Amino acid sequence: CWASCCACARREKQYVPRVVRVGIPDRKSNHPANVIRNQKYSVLTFLPLVLFEQFKNFLNFCFLVMALSQFIPQLRIGYLYTYWGPLAFVVSVTMVREAVDDIRRYLRDREVNGTAYERLSKAGAQTVPSSALRVGDVVRVGKNQRVPADLVLLRTSDRQGTCYLRTDQLDGETDWKLRLAPTVTQAVERDEDLLDLGGSVYAERPGRDIHGFIGTLTVARLSPDQQQQPEQQQMALSVENTVWANTVVASGWALGLVVYTGPETRAVMNNSKPRSKFGMTDVEINNITKVLVACVLLLSLALLALKGFGGQWYKYFWRFFLLFSYIVPLALRVNLDVAKMTYSFFIMRDKKLEGNIVRNTTIPEELGRISYLLSDKTGTLTENEMVFKKLHLGSTVYTDEADSHDEVRSLLQAGLAANAGGGGEGGSGGGGPDSVTRLGADLAARTAEAVRAVALCHNVTPVYDEAGADSGGAPAYQASSPDEVALVSWTAEVGLALVHRDQTSMRLRTPAGAELAYTVLHLFPFSSETKRMGIVVRDEATGDIAFYAKGADTVIGALVQPVDWLEEEVGNLAREGLRTLLVAKRRLKRDFYEDWSRRYITFDQLPCGAIAKGSVDFNRYEQARLAVENRSERMQQLQQQLDSGLELLCVTGVEDRLQSGVRPTLETLRNAGVRVWMLTGDKMETACCIAKSSRLVDRSGGLFAFQPASLRSADLDKELRNMARRVEAGHSVVISGECLQYGYYLPQAAVEQDERRFVQLACQAPAVVVCRCSPTQKAEVVRLLKDHTGKRCAAVGDGGNDVAMIQEADCGMGIAGKEGLQASLAADFSIARFQHVTRLMLVSQDTVHGRRCYKNTSVLAQFIVHRGLIISTMQAAFSAVFFYVAISLFPGILMIGYATIFTMFPVFSLVLDKDVASATAEKFPELYRDLLKGRELSAKLLCIWVAISIYQGGVIMYGSIWLFQGSFLHIVSIGFTALVFTELIMVALTVRTWCWQIIVAELVSLCSYLAAVFILTQYFDRAFILTLNFLWKVSAITAVSSIPIVALKLIRYLMSPPIARKLQA
Fold first, then answer.
1. Of 515, 538, 548, 509, residue with least CA distance to 409
2. Which of 493, 516, 515, 498 is nearest to 407 (CA)?
3. Residue 376 designated active-site
4. Which of 62, 470, 951, 1053 is most exposed, with minimal Cβ within 10 Å?
C-alpha cells in the first residue's frame, strides 16, 4: 500500500487536448497558474532541504553523529566546541550561500510575474499582472513586450494580420519570426468584436515542440437571413498562428488567446529544474572518506579486541572511534570549501577574462577534468552576422568588395534599361531570347536577372522606424533566416532595394529611383524536408508570371538544366566555408498558371470576408480545409509541378562570421584531449558549413550524416555499420534531432542497444554535429554522454534555448551576448566570448583556473588526509603502548591549534602552487590530457600517503617515548613539536613553485607555534624546552621521519621526472 502511494505521488501529470473559449476563462479545469518559479526552496523547505543536502554527504554525516555523541558524558572526549565549531561553520557557510542565491532567483521571478498586461473582457480592458492571466483570457501584448503565456494569435496592428517576434530566448535565433492572425478574427472591426464571435480553439495537449502546433479555430457564422441557427466554420491552426511565452513582440501589438500557462508553456517545459551540482572530485573525496571511516572502525575494533570485550566494551569502542576520527578530519570540508571560494575569487579577478562571473562556487575544480564540451552554434561559435561574400554566374564572379559593387550596379542599371526597352522582363517580348541564361546572352541582362531573382525570392520584410517609408530612410530587413537578410541587403547595396513587402505584394527600387511592383501569388516557405523555398510573382508592368526557387545545391542542382561549372564552383565556395544557395527561375505561361492555380486554391488565399459572407463554394472550402490540415504535403505537391524546366541563374555564397579566436580555441581544445560536439537548431547544411569553417571538422576529413532509413533494426544496424567504417577512416559525424528523437526516446531493448553502439562510435569520432536540435534534445544529448561514458561534460551557450543543456552539464558556461542574459544567469560560469573557454579550463597566469585548480585541490585533499592520518597513528601507538588506554594523547587546545594556526596556513597555501609556468601550459595543451585520466586522487596515491603517514607517525611517537625523561609532559613537548616541524617540512617538499605567499605562510605558522610553546606553560615544560637536550631530540626525530621521504622523492624525480618538468626544461 505504501509503495502504491509513493508511485502515485511520483506519477507524472497526463496532459490532454483542450477546447478554449475565446474571452471566457476556464476556472473549473485544473490549469496551472501563470507563474514563473525558478526557486529551489521555499520558506518552509529551505532549512530541511539544505540540511539534507549537507548531511547526505558522508563526511558531514559522520561528524554530525560524532558531535551528537559528545552530549553523552560517558562518551565525551574534550570540549564540545572541538566538534560542533567546525561543523557549524561548514553548514552555516553553505546555508548563507544557498539563501543568497535563492533570494536572487525570487526577486527575478517576482519582477517577471508582476509585469502588467492588458486583458480584454466584456467589461472592458483591464490591466492585470502576468500571474493573474488564465486559460481563455484575451490579452494584448505591446511592442518590445515579453509574451506572458502561450497564445493563439487573433488580431494584430498590421492590416494584413502579420506580426513579428523575437524568439532568441526560446530557440536561440535572433532573427525575427513572422506570425499570422487567422483571417476570420483579423477581419473584425474592433477588438471587442472578438468576444461576440462565439469562437473557440481546439488545442493539442501541452508539449515541448516549439516548431509545431495542431489546432482548430471554430467561429459562428450567421445565415444570410440571420433567422436560422448560426453555422460553425472551422479553420486549421499551425505554429504560424501561435505566439509562445518568453518571445518578444517586435512590431506593433498583438492580441492573443491564452491556451497554455505557467509550467505548461513551451518555454518552461523545455527547461529543466535547477539542480545542486556535485563535482567528481567531491565524489572521489567522499569515497576516500568512506574508506578512511572503515579503517577507523577496524583500528578501533582491533584495539578493543586487544584490550578485551569485558565490561562496557561498547563505550570504549566509541571512545577509540572518536580518538582516531582525526583520520577523517572535518577540516577537509572546511579547507575545500574555502579553497573553492578562493579559486572563484581568482577567476573573477582575471583581467584577461573581463566580464566573467562565477555563479556556482562549488565546482571550479571540475574545469580541470572536462572530457566533452558541447557547444551551441549561433552566437557562441559565430557572431550571428551573415555577410554576403560571392555571387557566381559561371563565367563571372562578384564579391563583397567596393569595386565589385560598382560593377554590378552599372551592369544592373544597363540590364534593367534593356529589359524596359525590350518590352518585357528579360526581353521576353518582341522576339527576344527565351532564356536569360542562353549561351551568349548579354552579361548585363544575366547580371540584372540574377540580382532581381535574389531580390524577389525570399521571405524578408523591410521594417521602417517611426517616421515610416516616406521619410526616405533606409529600412531594416527582418526574416526568419539571416542569410536571406544578407542577400537582400546586398541587392540594396548594388542598387535594387526592397522597399515594401506584405502578404500579397512587393516593390523594388532601381538605381534610377523607379519602383518595380510585383504581386506575390504563391509562397512556398523553406522546410527541412524540401531544403528549398519558392515564390510565384507577377510583374505588374508587363503581366509576366515567374516562379523563382532558391535552395541547397543538392536539391536545386538536380532540378535545373545541366551546367558544367556548377559542381566545381559550389565545391570551391564550400571549401571557403561559405553557405551556398542556388537561385533558379521558370517563366510560367498564363494559361498553365491559371489551370494550376484553379485546381489548388487554398483557404489561406480566400478574401478576409469571404467566409463570413458565405460566398465560398462548399466543396472548394472542404478542399481548402484539407490543404490547410496537410499543408506541408500539399505544398510539396504544388511546388513539384513548378520545378520542371527551371533554369539556373546564379550561385550565392554567404558567410556566418565566426567569433574571434574560435579556430585556435577549438584547435587548442582538440590538442588538450577535449572532444567538442556542436548542438544547433539550424538545418544540416548550415551546421556542416560552420563546422568546416570553424575547423571543428577537418577539411581533409569527411563528414558522415547518420540518417537511418527507418527505425527497423536492420536499417539501424546497417547505418551503424556504415558509421563505424566512416569513423574508423577519421570522419566526423552529423546527426539530426529527428534521428535522436527516434533513438533514445523509445524504450525498446533493440533501440537501447543501438543507442549504446551509436554513442560508442560517436565518442570515437573527431567531432560530432547535432542539427535541428530542440532545447530538450540538447539536454538529452548531455545526459546521454554522461550516462554512457562516465566522463565530465561541459556545455556552453548564449541563449534561452541553451539553459536546459547548461543546467544538465557537469559544468555549464553561459555567454552574455546578443541573445540576452538567460544562459549567463543559469550557468555555473558566465563568460563574454567562446575563446575564454580555453583560459578558463587550461591556462592561467598568476591565477588558479581549471587545470591548476583540479591539481591543487587534489594535493590539498591528500595533504589534509595525511595530516589526520599521522596524528591518528601517533594516537594508536600511544594507546597500544600504555595498555590500550582510551584517552587523548594531546590536549584539545593543541589538537585545535594543530588543525588551524600551527599547520593550516602552509597547507592551504598549496592552492597557490603551480607545477608549470603559464607559458608552458599555454604552449603545451597536451598537459591537460594527462588530467583526464583521473589519477590525481587515485587509490595508488592514497596508499602512498597512508604509508608515509604510518611511517612518520610511528617514528615520532616511538621516538618520543624512547627519548622522554620520566615525565609525560616531555612526550607531549617532544612529540608535538616534531609533529609540527615534520608537517611544515612535508609542505615544503610538496611545493613545486615557491611564491611569497607560501613562504609567509610557513613563517607565520612556525612563529605561531613557537609563541604558543612559551604561552601555554600548562602543556609545555619551558625549562626543558630551552635545553640542548630538547633540541637534539626533536631534531633527530624530525630528521628520521623526513629524510627518507626526501630521499625517495629525489630518486623518483631523477629516475622518472613528471611530464610537466620535462616540458618546462
1. 509
2. 493
3. yes
4. 470
Q: Do residues 562 and 413 share a domain?
A: yes
Q: Confidence band (pLDDT; 50, 70, 90) for 1047? A: very high
CA distances from 803 to 148, 377, 971 (A): 19, 14, 60
Q: Using one digit for the tens of pLDDT, what is the confidence trace for 537-553?
A: 999 989 999 999 998 88
Q: Is 680 annotated for ligand binding?
A: yes
- Give the angle subtended at the CA of 297 by the CAs of 291 and 298, to the nearest 5°: 90
294: its cell numbers = 572503515
Q: How confident is the model at residue 174 (pLDDT cuts 50, 70, 90)?
A: low
CA distances from 219 to 21, 185, 329, 606 (A): 10, 9, 73, 16
- Whether residues 1007 and 1031 fall in one domain: yes
Return d(Cα 332, Cα 868) in angstroms, integer.
9
Boundaries of domain holding 250: 133-270
User: What does R_g of the chain's alpha carbons equal in angstroms?
Assistant: 37
Would you say 484 is a known binding-site residue? yes
Q: Which residues pair with 581 in a beta bridge?
A: 652
Mean pLDDT, the chain, whole residue set: 81
**Residue 282 in domain:** no
**CB burial string 597-624: b at 16+ within 10 A, e below:** beebbbbbebebebbbeeebeeeebebb
Q: Are residues 67 and 158 in the same domain?
A: no
Query: What pLDDT band is residue 424 in, cutting at 50, 70 and 90?
Result: very low
**Same domain membership, residue 900 and residue 836:** no
pLDDT at 970: 78
The answer to whether residue 425 is domain-embedded is no
376 among annotated binding-site residues: yes
Name the residue among 128, 109, 106 with its Cα closest to residue 117: 128
Predicted TM-score of the model (pTM): 0.69
Last residue of a domain, one of 790, 810, 842: 842
Q: Are residues 241 and 194 in the same domain?
A: yes
Q: Are residues 1045 and 927 in the same domain?
A: yes
Q: Is 378 annotated as ligand-binding?
A: yes
* Secondary structure letter of residue 995 according to DSSP: -
C-alpha cell at 859: 594535493
Inter-axis angle of helices 81-113 and 331-349, nearest 10: 40
CB 1055 within 8 A of CB 981: no
Is residue 297 included in any domain, yes or no? no
Q: Contact 931/368 with Cβ under 8 angstroms?
A: yes
Q: Is residue 527 part of a domain?
A: yes
Lowest mean pLDDT among 133-147, 381-395, 692-706, 790-804: 692-706
Q: What is the mean pLDDT of residues 592-611?
A: 56
Tell whether 778 is in a known binding site.
yes
When divided into structural domains, the chain yields a total of 5
User: In this structure, what DSSP letter does residue 523 have?
Assistant: E
377 marked as part of a ligand binding site: yes
Alpha helix segments (H runs only) across 523-629: 553-559, 566-575, 590-599, 610-613, 618-629
Question: What region, left, alpha or beta, does residue 796 occupy, with left being phi > 0 and alpha being psi -120 to 50 degrees?
Answer: beta
Burial class (CB in 10 A: 0-12, 13-18, 19+), 748: exposed
| Residue 802 marked in a binding site | yes
Considering the candidates 376, 539, 754, 915, report the single residue annotated as catalytic.
376
Given a cut of 70, whether residue 335 has pLDDT beyond it is yes
* CATH number where 798 lies: 3.40.50.1000
State whether 635 and 555 are in the same domain. yes
Q: What is the pLDDT of residues 931-951, one digit of tens each?
A: 888 788 888 888 899 999 999
